[in-house]
Amino acid sequence: MTAAVLYGREDLRIERLPIPKAGAGELVVKVHAALTCGTDLKVYRRGYHARMLKPPIPFGHELAGTVYEVGEGVTAFREGDRVVALNSAPCDVCYFCRKDQQNLCDDLLFNNGAYAEYIRIPARIVEKNTLLVPEELLFEHAALTEPLACVVRGLEESQAQPGDLMVVIGAGPIGLMFMQAAQIAGVRVVAVVKHDAQVDAAKTFGAEWVVQTTKVEDPIAAVRALTPDHRGVDIAIEAVAVPETWQWAVDMVRKGGLVNFFGGPASGTKVELDTNRLHYNDITLKATFHHTPGTVRRAFDMIRNGQFKSRETITGRAPLAELDAVLQSYLKRSRQDGLGDIKTAIIP
């Protein structure tokens, strides 16, 4: 088969590898669509991911396809089934799993290799995080389940309630997903974006108000001005992953509000915060990482039921042979004007 293998920083090679075999409890899935992801882009740029992969390794983790081979003992799936297989599964026996924090599982099993013609799905993921895809749902839309599941967990952990006012800082794929998921939940959204094209995208994905950082002197004041008595938003979601926007999020939220640092900065990144304001304004700070089997299913239902704007989220398509060029275009975009596709479906 043809597959993408990451060897290091911006070193991605399209190679010929053996088609994997399904062991006991496993599946081999023929990939029909694999989606680009902000995490993949960070890994591509940095050359590794401390928790999920170390080169050289097959690359990619958002996929949907059909079952090509069924391993011994698998009864829930059969050859030809349309499926979406997630990129991880918890053990459900460790301390964190028993505390309903499966995303922090001590033995969280990750799986990579979506940018390929075929991928092996480990038994635990087959059992806990592989779902049947109905005929009417496009493969590339089903593949959105993984990133949306992370967003759903972030929204739930932020204690969002209908009628709340939320600011989402950042209009990349995850930021836009947050806007859409919040709108579906009845939460009113202020988007903070940088580039002209992101203004329209934010509105498409549910933002009622858009603050463009290049058009205002003080983004913090601009967001607070949209709230009654300039008191600040109920919830602030940071989806950029740089120290400045982490600080903005804290200063945009009201007394008694909550900040979710969803963007994942590079290891060693430091942020300075006003501890006096945090304490005397009773502000909750938290971060949300990854997904759980529960949020996977809730995200899939949003996609399957047509609530989520799947068609608007996938704005590009490319063959596997062009993956490196696609990732390079995303890097160029991030370094320059921020314009371009939201997510690209790679079709092996």
Topology diagram in text:
Layout (H helix, E strand, L loop, with lengths): L1 E7 L2 E6 L10 E9 L2 H9 L10 E2 L4 E8 L11 E4 L2 E2 L5 H4 L10 E2 L7 E4 L1 H6 L1 E3 L6 H4 L2 H13 L7 E5 L3 H12 L3 E6 L2 H9 L4 E4 L6 H6 L8 E6 L4 H10 E9 L13 H6 L3 E3 L6 H12 L5 H4 E6 L3 H13 L7 E5 L1
Parallel strand pairs: 11-12, 11-14, 12-13, 14-15, 15-16, 17-18
Antiparallel strand pairs: 1-2, 1-4, 3-5, 3-9, 3-18, 5-6, 6-10, 7-8
Helix pairs in contact: 5-6, 5-11
Describe this entry's structure for a reader.
By secondary structure, the chain is of the alpha/beta class. It has 13 helices and 18 strands. The protein has helices spanning 38-46, 95-98, 123-128, 139-142, 145-157, 173-184, 196-204, 219-224, 243-252, 275-280, 293-304, 310-313, 323-335; strands spanning 2-8, 11-16, 27-35, 57-58, 63-70, 82-85, 88-89, 109-110, 118-121, 130-132, 165-169, 188-193, 209-212, 233-238, 253-261, 284-286, 314-319, 343-347. Strands 3, 5, 6, 9, 10, 17 and 18 form a 7-stranded mixed beta sheet that branches. Strands 13-12-11-14-15-16 form a 6-stranded parallel beta sheet. A hairpin with a 2-residue loop joins strand 1 (2-8) and strand 2 (11-16). Helix 5 (145-157) crosses helix 11 (293-304). It starts with a strand and ends with a strand. The model has no long low-confidence stretch (mean pLDDT 95).
